[in-house]
Amino acid sequence: VEHSGYQTVCPNGGLLYGPERQVCPGHFMARHYRTCVACNTPEWGRWRSVRGLLLTFPRRWLCFHVTQNVAPSRHMAMRMMLPKTVVIHHGVPPKDPASSDCADESGRASFLYVGRLIPEKGVSTLLEAAHLLKASSKRPFGIDIVGDGPERRRLEELAHKLQLDGGVHFHGSMEPAKIAQAFKNPVAVVMPSTCEEVAPLVAIEQMILGRVVIGSDIGGLGEFLGEAGLTFKPGDSAELAGCMEIGRAHV
User: Fold this and answer.
1) What CA–CA distances, in Å, run from 143 to 57, 113, 241?
2) Percent of the chain's residues with pLDDT above 90
3) What is the secondary structure of 68-85 as a DSSP string?
4) Whole-number Å distance between alpha carbons of 154 and 185
5) C-alpha–C-alpha distance, residues 167 and 72, integer Å
6) For residues 188 and 209, is the Cβ–Cβ distance under 8 A?
7) What are the φ/ψ torsions at residue 144 (nearest 5 degrees)?
C-alpha cells in the first residue's frame, strides 16, 4: 500500500483538527474517538463523521496485513506507526536549472506561491509577512499567488486590508507548464503551510531547478528542505518576513 495521506491515523486523512484546521496531536491514536467525531461533524454532519471514524479502523487493520507499506517521507512513516513500512521518496524528473535573474520586468524582487487557497496552506501568513516586510524596507517586491480555492476571496480582502494592492497578484489556477513559463525567476518559492505536508512535490521540483524555497518547518516539508532551504515556525509571519528578507538580499 502506498500512502499519500494520513487515512490510517485520522478519519479526515489530513491530521487536521477543528474548524480552524490546526495540526491534530493524534486524537485517533490516543483513542479520543468522541473528539474525532466532534472534529468532523461541522463539515460532514454527525452521521457521516461517525461513519468516517468507523472506516478508519478497517483501513488501519488491513495495513497491518499487507506485504509492505510505502511512505514518501520519514515523517509520514513516523506518524502512521505501521509495521513493514519502507520510505521511498517521490521521484521527480530532472529539469534545466532556472535563470539566476530574480527580478521581474519592473525590476522588483518577486516571490511565488503555488497551491490551493485553503486555510491549512497558510497563505494568510504570507500576506502578513509581506505587510511586515513592506513596512520595514523600502526595496520594492511583489508576490505572485498561483492557485484557487475557497479562501481566495478572503485572502484578496486581507491583501487589500494590509495595503498590499499592486504588490500581490492572484493569478488563479494555471497548468504546470504555463507556471514555469510565466514565472521563470522568482526570488523564492514560499510554502507557508500550517498542516503536515506528506511529501511536497512543489518544493522538490523547485529545488531541482535550483530555486530557493522558503517553507514552514513542519511535516514532510521541513524534512525535505533540511538545510537546503529557509525554514520558519508555522504561522510565524515575522519569522517568514525575515526569511524573505534574507532571500531578497541575495538578488
Assistant:
1) 43, 8, 12
2) 65
3) -EEESSHHHHHHH--SSE
4) 28
5) 36
6) no
7) -105, 120
